[in-house]
Design goal:
Keywords: Glycosyltransferase, Transferase. Helices cover about 45% and strands about 10% of the residues. It is built from 15 helices and 10 strands.
């Protein structure tokens, strides 16, 4: 543990150390000699589990020789204490390198400590004695442009009818030829459905160009978003009624966890197997292609979307997707799988498989 040099910080850290030590954990509590000497004495039952590590505070011009805590200084002198505290980086790095703790719990002041810990391969925990709302005023400001873009997405989604929007995204690696992209765009236009299309464009490539006038003709009921978008948040919005996807498994999981029926337009790799499984389970509909050359058309895209999102025949897909939500959206069950994996790894940590 490495708290800031103020007793309002050191004492809460020490209380936490005692709680953790009562569970049998060994704690190294790091501070300066004079501060450690002024801390409350440990109960005999915990003395063997909590070790006080004294690291002398480096001298700094303007800092009195005996000052090691904020209580030793006037307000205008604390700046010098901060400078001295930052100089503890090197001796603390040496201690951590030699002792190799399992975790480091640190305070707000040592902004440099996470970088040191990463170099040594030691995980860190930030223990804040401030409330969360106060931290909001000390953290870096939000990216205003990014925040504006996210608000724009939400405002557009909020303006659409429940379950009416087709969310369109094909992952970060799937690529389409200009002909294929044209058919997808024209299919969206022919469907007459509202859509939000996250279109990954490639610089200096004609393949990323949409049909002339497409965005103008679909303006109002459709959005073509050419930047990164928060896919999970969009899929979780009540206005989304279907997901036109390449069938990448991460996207499949993200769609079904919200019960979104899937319209499957595969590109390559595992996507064909994924789509076949989903179609067999009734959770997704594969856009028909010409069996001779594998091409799909604007009509096949439009008909697939209308059927799955609004058509009577597509009700079975919508119902099945909501059933799948119970499985894919069960975070407790997912956590249980992770815990089972962790238990297996811990049990077999020294066993050669």
């Amino acid at each position: 543990m490495f708290p800031w040099l103020a007793f309002g910080h050191m004492l809460p850290f020490l209380r936490l150390a005692k709680i953790m030590a009562r569970k049998g954990n060994r704690i190294s509590f790091i501070s300066t000699p004079r501060n450690i000497d002024r801390l409350p004495q440990l109960p005999p039952t915990l003395a063997s589990l909590i070790t006080f590590v004294k690291i002398p505070l480096p001298p700094v011009d303007g800092l009195p020789p005996t000052a090691e805590a904020t209580s030793d200084l006037e307000g205008h002198e604390i700046l010098y204490l901060k400078r001295a505290y930052d100089l503890l980086r090197q001796p603390l790095s040496g201690f951590l390198s030699n002792s190799r703790p399992d975790w480091i719990l640190f305070d707000h002041a040592p902004f440099w400590l996470p970088a040191v810990a990463r170099e040594l391969g030691i995980p860190t925990v930030f223990f804040s004695i401030f409330i969360a709302s106060a931290l909001a005023f000390t953290s870096p400001p939000a990216d205003e442009e990014q925040d504006y873009r996210r608000r724009a997405i939400k405002e557009w989604m909020d303006g659409q009818k429940w379950g009416s929007v087709v969310y369109v995204a094909f992952g970060s690696e799937a690529t389409w030829s200009h002909e294929e992209l044209t058919e997808i765009a024209n299919g969206l236009e022919l469907s007459g459905l509202p859509f939000f299309w996250v279109l990954r464009t490639r610089q200096s490539s004609d393949d990323s160009k949409l049909p002339e006038g497409f965005e103008e003709r679909t303006k109002g009921r459709g959005v073509v978003w050419k930047e990164w978008a928060p896919q999970v948040k969009i899929l979780g919005h009540d206005s989304v009624g279907g997901f036109l996807t390449h069938s990448g498994w991460s996207s499949v999981v993200e769609g079904l966890q919200f019960g979104r029926p899937l319209v499957l337009l595969i590109c390559y790799n595992d996507q064909g197997l994924n789509a076949k499984l989903l179609q067999q389970k009734g959770a997704g509909y594969l856009v028909p292609r010409d069996e001779r050359d594998g091409r799909f058309t604007r009509d096949s895209v439009a008909d697939s979307l209308k059927m799955v999102v609004t058509g009577e025949e597509g009700a079975t897909y919508r119902i099945k997707a909501m059933e799948m939500k119970e499985l894919f959206g069960d975070t407790e069950k997912h956590d249980d799988y992770v815990y089972a994996l962790l238990e297996y790894l811990e049990t077999n940590i020294s066993r050669k498989l």
